[in-house]
Structures are given as structure tokens and as C-alpha cells.
From TrEMBL:
<dbReference type="Pfam" id="PF00085">
    <property type="entry name" value="Thioredoxin"/>
</dbReference>
<dbReference type="Pfam" id="PF00226">
    <property type="entry name" value="DnaJ"/>
</dbReference>
<keyword id="KW-0732">Signal</keyword>
<keyword id="KW-0472">Membrane</keyword>
<dbReference type="GO" id="GO:0005789">
    <property type="term" value="C:endoplasmic reticulum membrane"/>
</dbReference>
<dbReference type="InterPro" id="IPR013766">
    <property type="entry name" value="Thioredoxin_domain"/>
</dbReference>
<feature type="transmembrane region" description="Helical">
    <location>
        <begin position="534"/>
        <end position="554"/>
    </location>
</feature>
<dbReference type="GO" id="GO:0006914">
    <property type="term" value="P:autophagy"/>
</dbReference>
<dbReference type="InterPro" id="IPR043361">
    <property type="entry name" value="DNAJC16_TRX"/>
</dbReference>
<feature type="signal peptide">
    <location>
        <begin position="1"/>
        <end position="26"/>
    </location>
</feature>
<dbReference type="InterPro" id="IPR018253">
    <property type="entry name" value="DnaJ_domain_CS"/>
</dbReference>
<keyword id="KW-0812">Transmembrane</keyword>
<keyword id="KW-0072">Autophagy</keyword>
<feature type="domain" description="Thioredoxin">
    <location>
        <begin position="124"/>
        <end position="252"/>
    </location>
</feature>
<keyword id="KW-0325">Glycoprotein</keyword>
<dbReference type="InterPro" id="IPR001623">
    <property type="entry name" value="DnaJ_domain"/>
</dbReference>
<feature type="region of interest" description="Disordered">
    <location>
        <begin position="713"/>
        <end position="748"/>
    </location>
</feature>
Length: 789
């Protein structure tokens, strides 16, 4: 008994000594102000600025100091305390944080390939526990991502986690992920979870090759998270995904310029008054979702430059206030004020104020939303459209039309105007004009009947803004409410011109700037391990390019040297010397390499030809071999620069059966031969035919020779060799018994030589892709050799 009491006493003493030691170590390291080098009165902006500077300086991937990792963790935890008002107040009052363990002892850092996370908490090692938080609610599949997430990412950003069942590292980030998801989803951020074990295709599509990984998707673009997995970091990551120019800072210096730009941008303007110096994330997300409809500004109530604005609009300083301005820049069209604004309230507020009272039709999308197509009888929508001009002389009438539209209380009627000069085709139809001259402004009431452009309309009155014009329009609207059939004209409306198309260049510049900023940020903050594939690809491409240029330079110089002493031999070869004509290949230098298509080369040169490559095959006989090969090489020589073209010849004396089988699939191409030559009763001479064979896609293009040379006896080309098949006259020797043998042989040689006269033009059409294609189910075999008769 005494021994057990002694053991218990020693254990208690040991525990107390450990706790006291831990407290002694914790004391000097628990001061987040000292770690960040800040005063206790530092503002949130100062804390954030210092944290970003220190985080870059002490990031373990950039700082090789042995203490960089521990210092980076301390900086991060200090920022977590001071950036959270509750944690900061708790520390200022009691000198304590939510964590009971000190930075140095009992806590260690795990460095994952994608980011850092803290392992100061206990967890059970069960592969399914990290799935307790309902990941299945956010599980993404490939088709769902492509069809739903990517289009939706143009309205809101997505935060996606890559995980797997047996990923123990994923368990560490689960509590933080759960907390961030609950907060971000309430703000309108899309959430997704990809299980690599079930959606490997989607993970590869996103470029996520390890678990866990966290990434963001916005405007269809994927961005990876590379920082410490902490709540504040993930919130900042989502905020950094958004474009930089969503919300404009408004003060007394630029308030009039901001509010009066409604006419140029054709949008209502929204102003948020709040006391925080930084634009709230909820407001930025709202601005991104409604960027196509509204222009957003932010007023910091803590600045002296905004005091007069708060007095002018009678702003309550105790709650955020949101104002919508339309055509009247001095008076808000709508207002909302509440503490802790919720996303649902803001969305409803924005949806009710998406358009001006009388917006200008600037593109087809706006026209479709303002004047939707009729779907049901009780959902009729009518558009009162003012066709006017943008000159100063029309300003009074335009302003009076706006005043009239501001008194409208009927939901079924929308008011809009259009500039005749910018939307001439639409205006000509509605005004029933035959000439394009600009005429007096006119008001038209229309109803769209289908998406193809059909509409019913009625020109109401010429418009100059007088009281008579207003009264006449009121009467027509009352008649329309009782009898919709007063819209007596119908027409097919053309698609509207996009008047903001000229702003594409500016948007492209902004997008390029954002992209370059992201690239620079990735280079500075990514793990170099993840950057290695990209760097390897870049250096490989540069090496290949440099090597190609050097080899080409040396090969060109060597070819020039070898060509000069052999110029005389080359001339003889081109003129058809016996040495060159007896070979089945063209000359070796500065000419075309042509291989014979046999049962040995058949698989590699046709059946297993690489995708995108084509084999140009010349059909010949033993008698015409030398003449046609020489002519063929000259005709296709200018196309040898293409790496996707290969050149071969087929001996029809050996493989006529293969040729007949192949051309059965090109019956349309052979129909002319059938009509002209009684195909079936006479055997077709395929000599001089050229086939362009695509082995991968299994189609062919066919060249049929046409004799274009002149007859030696003065006969026309049609008499001697003008048939589409290019056949030589088999009865020429019998019909002309007195003709000398060498004379007959000369005519036959000339005919064969001219069969390929138009091959160059055919090759140009082949490269353009304008030739007809004949698809076949499978390539016939070339094993059998037709026995010679």
C-alpha cells in the first residue's frame, strides 16, 4: 500500500513538473504581437500587411534557414489570433488563446506536398472518420463538374477538396474544412468534394495528383491552394480568386463620376456603406454574381472623405446600408439596411433592381431578359420601345420617355429605348421603312412570340415628349390590356448588334493582367516540386527548338556543298536518263522519296499510319513505271515539306484485285467512268490514278487522270486521250497499220506522261480539305498477288 501511494505521488509530481516546464516554455513564445512586431493598437489592415510580408519572408520553400519552418508556424498562429476579434480580445484580456498547448512543445508540423497543416489535435485512425462530415452532399462527378460547376463558376467561385478513403493526412484538415465550408456556403461559395478512388478521371482533369489537395474554380479556371490550412487562409484564398476590379472605392472625390456613369454603362449602380475598412467578402461575391447587370461601389464610413456622403443620404452608422441608384443619381431608387445582412436578402434586393427604369437595348441578351418570349397566356410581357437617336436634339424626348417609364406600375410592361443608328436592322422592321435614313423618333409596342425572332407589334405614335404623345401612349396601353389583338403587325426580328463589343479589348487586357498576376504569384509561392513539370516542359521545348535550328543550319550547308559538284548529274536525272529511270525510287537529293506499297510495307504505310498522316499512292504498271514515277515526283515535290504526307506507288499488275475491292467503296467517284466507258463490259485502266489514303480515319480521296497534251498527228486531246480514266487506245495499232512502231511508242509515252498534268492542282485541294472523301469499313488485305495473264 505504501509503495502504491509513493508511486502515485511521484506520478503527480512528474505531471506537475511537465506542466510547469511547458508553461515556462510557452511564456515567451505566446506573444503574437511580439512575433509579428506589432503594437497592441495595430489595425486589421496593418496586421494583414505585416503577416503577408513575414509569411513570404519565412516561407520554408524560400527561406533555407533551419528555423524557418517553426517561425512560419508561429507567424501563422499569431495571425490567426490577431485577425480574429474574439481571439484577440481573449488574449488581450487574459493573455491566453484557445489553444492550451504552447507553440514549441507538444506540437509538430507536418509538411504536405500541397500545403501545411497543424497536427496539434488528436484524432482516431479510422479511414472513414474523416468522411463523417457529409462529404457525400458535395461529391462531384465528372459530368456534373463539366455541365454544372464550370458554367456556374462564372457566377460564383467554387472551393473543391480532393480526398480519398485511406488518406490519413486528409483527417487533419477535416475540422478546419468543415468550419470553412459552413461559413463559405452561407456566403454563396460553391463547395465540392472529389474522391480520387471513385473519380480518378475528374481528379486528372483538374490536375490534382495527390491527396489531400484544395483548389478553387472561377470562370472555368482552376487555382490550387498552397498555404497553411487555416480558416483565415482559406477565406483569403477565396477572396483572391475574385477579379480585382469588382468593387470601386467611392469617396466625395469620385461619387458623382461613379453614379453618373449609368448612362454610359447602361446599368444601375449599388453603393454599400459600412464601417469596416475592407470590402466584406459577401459584398464581393454579390458583385461577382451580378457583374453583368449592376455596377458596385463601397463607402468606408470610417474615412473623413465620406462624411458628407453619409449626411447626404442620411446613412445610419450602426448598420450596413445598401443603396441602388438608377437614372436619378441624386436619389436612390431602393434601399436596404440591416445588421448582419444575409445572402438571401441581398440576392432578392439585387434581383429586383437588375435593370434601369428604361434601359437601352445594347445586345441580344438584354433584349431576351427585358422582353422575354411569351410562354403562357397569363404570362404575357409587352415592351414599350422608343426608337430614337443619340444626338442632342433628341435628349428632351428621351428624358420625357424616361419620366413616363418611371410612373409605370404594371409588371407586364417593360420600357426600353434603342438608338436607330446602332440597331438599324431592328428599327427598319419596326418602323416599316424601306430606306435606311434616320427619321423622327417613334414608340412601338411589341410582344415576342418565339425564340426564333417572331414578334407582334404596333407603331403607336411619333414621339417628341409632348403631353399629347403621353396621353396617346396611355390610351394604347389601356386598350392593350383589354384586347391584345391590337398588335396587328408581325415580323421576324433580327438579332441585335452588341454595342459593347468594342470593350472586348479592354476586358482582354484586364484578363491578361489577372492571368499574369496569377502566374507570378504561383511562381513565387508554389512548391518547386510542383513547378518542376512545367519548368521541365519549357526547357525541353527550348532544347528541341534550339537543336532543330542548329541541325537544320548544318544540314542546309552540307546539302549545298554536295549539290554543286553533282549539278550535272542531277540535270541528267531530271531529263529522264536511263540511270534514273530504271530505279523504282526518285533521285536521292532534292527530290521525293517514293516507296512501293507491298504486303511488307502495307501495315506501316497504311493500316497503322499515325493519326493525321496520309499516304499518297500512285497506281502504275511495269510498262509505265519509270515515266509516271518521274512525272509524279515533279508534281508533288512542292508538297514534300509537309511532315504528314508520305508517298508510295502501287503496281497494278500485281495488285489489281486489291484496287477493284478498294474502289467498290468509291462507286460515286467511278460513276463517270461507268457512264463514259461502259463500266462492267470493259476493264478500267487504273494507270495514273492517285489515292490519298488516311489509314487512321479510314477514308480515301481519288485523283483520276485527264490527258491534256497535244496529239503529235494534230488531233485534239479528246480524240487521243481525253477520257476520264486516261486509258490509252488499245486499238491504235490496228486502226493505223501504216504507223511506224517507234512513232506509236512515242505517242503512247506522251499520253502516259501527261496523265498527271493536273495532279498539282488536286494536291492543293487535298491540303485545303475540299476534296470529297470516301469512307470504307476496313482496309482490304494486300497479301494476294494477282497472277499475270
Amino acid at each position: 500500500m505504501a509503495w502504491s501511494k509513493m508511486s502515485l505521488l511521484l506520478a503527480v509530481v512528474a505531471v506537475l513538473s511537465v506542466l510547469l516546464t511547458g508553461s515556462a516554455h510557452a511564456g515567451p513564445e505566446m506573444d503574437p504581437y511580439k512575433i509579428l512586431g506589432l503594437a497592441r493598437s495595430a489595425s486589421q489592415a496593418e496586421i494583414k500587411k505585416v503577416y503577408k510580408r513575414l509569411a513570404k519572408e519565412w516561407h520554408p520553400d524560400k527561406n533555407k534557414n533551419p528555423d524557418a519552418e517553426d517561425m512560419f508556424i508561429k507567424i501563422t498562429k499569431s495571425y490567426e489570433i490577431l485577425s480574429n476579434e474574439d481571439k484577440r480580445a481573449n488574449y488581450d484580456r487574459y493573455g491566453q488563446t484557445d489553444d492550451t498547448q504552447p507553440y514549441g512543445s507538444g506540437r509538430y508540423r507536418h509538411h504536405h506536398d500541397s500545403f501545411y497543416f497543424d497536427e496539434s489535435f488528436n484524432f482516431p485512425f479510422n479511414s472513414k472518420n474523416h468522411r463523417d462530415f457529409t462529404d457525400s452532399k458535395y461529391t462531384l462527378h465528372f459530368n456534373q463538374y463539366v455541365n454544372d460547376v464550370v458554367p456556374d463558376s462564372y457566377k460564383r467561385p467554387y472551393l473543391i477538396k480532393i480526398t480519398s478513403d485511406w488518406c490519413f493526412s486528409c483527417i487533419h484538415i477535416e475540422p478546419i474544412w468543415k468550419e470553412v465550408v459552413e461559413e463559405m456556403e452561407a456566403l454563396g461559395v460553391g463547395i465540392g468534394v472529389v474522391d480520387v478512388g471513385y473519380e480518378r478521371r475528374l481528379a486528372n482533369h483538374l490536375g490534382a495528383h495527390r491527396t489531400p489537395s484544395i483548389l478553387g474554380v472561377i470562370n472555368g479556371k482552376v487555382t490550387f491552394f498552397h498555404y497553411v490550412v487555416a480558416k483565415e487562409h482559406l477565406k483569403q484564398f477565396v477572396e483572391d480568386l475574385l477579379p480585382q476590379r469588382l468593387v470601386e472605392q467611392v469617396t466625395e472625390k469620385n461619387d458623382l463620376q461613379f453614379l453618373n456613369s449609368w448612362h454610359e454603362l447602361n446599368k444601375p449602380h449599388v453603393l454599400l456603406f459600412d464601417q469596416v475598412p475592407v470590402v466584406p467578402l459577401l459584398y464581393k461575391l454579390t458583385a461577382f454574381a451580378y457583374k453583368d447587370y449592376l455596377q458596385f461601389g463601397y463607402v468606408d464610413q470610417g474615412l473623413s472623405e465620406t462624411a458628407n456622403l453619409q449626411k447626404q443620404f442620411n446613412i445610419n452608422t450602426y448598420a450596413p446600408t445598401m443603396l441602388v441608384f438608377k437614372e436619378n443619381a441624386g436619389k436612390p431608387a431602393d434601399i436596404i439596411q440591416a445588421k448582419g445582412m444575409k445572402k438571401q436578402i441581398i440576392d432578392e434586393f439585387m434581383s429586383n433592381n437588375k435593370f434601369l427604369l428604361a434601359p437601352r437595348l445594347v445586345n441580344q441578351k438584354l433584349f431576351d431578359e427585358l422582353c422575354p418570349v411569351k410562354q403562357f397566356h397569363r404570362r404575357r410581357k409587352y415592351c414599350v420601345l422608343l426608337i430614337t437617336g443619340d444626338e442632342e436634339t433628341f435628349s428632351f424626348g428621351n428624358q420625357e420617355f424616361l419620366s413616363f417609364a418611371s410612373t409605370n406600375t404594371k409588371e407586364v410592361v417593360r420600357f426600353a429605348y434603342v438608338y436607330q443608328r446602332l440597331q438599324q436592322p431592328l428599327c427598319d422592321i419596326l418602323m416599316q421603312k424601306k430606306d435606311s435614313a434616320q427619321s423622327q423618333p417613334q414608340v412601338v409596342i411589341l410582344e415576342r412570340r418565339n425564340a426564333a425572332g417572331k414578334a407582334l407589334f404596333k407603331p403607336v405614335t411619333a414621339w417628341n415628349g409632348s403631353e399629347e404623345d403621353k396621353q396617346r401612349l396611355v390610351e394604347e396601353l389601356e386598350r392593350l390590356q383589354k384586347d391584345p389583338s391590337i398588335l396587328i403587325h408581325d415580323a421576324m426580328l433580327p438579332e441585335l448588334n452588341n454595342e459593347f463589343a468594342s470593350m472586348f479589348v479592354i476586358r482582354w487586357i484586364y484578363a491578361s493582367y489577372d492571368y499574369l498576376s496569377d502566374v507570378i504569384d504561383d511562381i513565387l509561392h508554389n512548391n518547386w516540386r510542383e513547378m518542376m513539370p512545367l519548368l521541365s516542359l519549357i526547357f525541353s521545348a527550348l532544347f528541341i527548338l534550339f537543336g532543330t535550328v542548329v541541325i537544320q543550319a548544318f544540314s542546309d550547308s552540307s546539302e549545298d556543298k554536295q549539290t554543286k559538284p553533282k549539278a550535272k548529274d542531277g540535270t541528267k536525272a531530271e531529263n529522264g536518263s536511263p540511270g534514273s529511270s530504271n530505279s523504282s525510287r526518285p533521285p536521292k537529293k532534292n527530290f521525293v522519296e517514293v516507296t512501293e506499297l507491298t504486303d511488307i510495307t502495307y501495315m506501316s504505310n497504311l493500316v497503322k499510319l499515325r493519326p493525321g498522316h496520309m499516304n499518297i499512292v500512285l497506281v502504275l504498271t511495269d510498262a509505265s513505271k519509270n515515266i509516271l514515277l518521274s512525272k509524279f515526283a515533279k508534281e508533288v515535290y512542292s508538297f514534300t515539306g509537309s511532315l504528314t504526307l508520305h508517298f508510295s506507288f502501287l503496281n497494278i499488275d500485281k495488285h489489281s484485285q486489291w484496287m477493284n475491292t478498294l474502289l467498290e467503296y468509291a462507286q460515286d467517284a467511278m460513276q463517270n467512268d461507268a457512264d463514259d466507258d461502259d463500266w462492267g463490259s470493259h476493264k478500267i485502266d487504273y494507270t495514273g490514278y492517285v489515292l490519298a489514303l488516311n489509314g487512321h480515319k479510314k477514308y480515301l480521296c481519288l485523283f483520276k487522270p485527264v490527258y491534256t497534251g497535244e496529239d503529235l498527228d494534230g488531233k485534239s486531246s479528246e480524240d487521243e486521250g481525253g477520257t476520264s480514266g486516261g486509258r490509252s487506245k488499245s486499238g491504235s495499232r490496228d486502226d493505223h497499220p501504216t504507223r511506224k512502231p517507234n512513232r506509236s511508242r512515242s505517242i503512247s509515252t506522251l499520253q502516259i506522261h501527261h496523265k498527271l498534268d493536273r495532279l498539282g492542282l488536286w494536291m492543293e485541294r487535298l491540303m485545303e480539305g475540299t476534296l470529297p472523301r470516301y469512307y470504307i469499313p476496313t482496309w482490304p488485305g494486300l497479301e494476294k498477288i494477282t497472277p499475270s495473264k
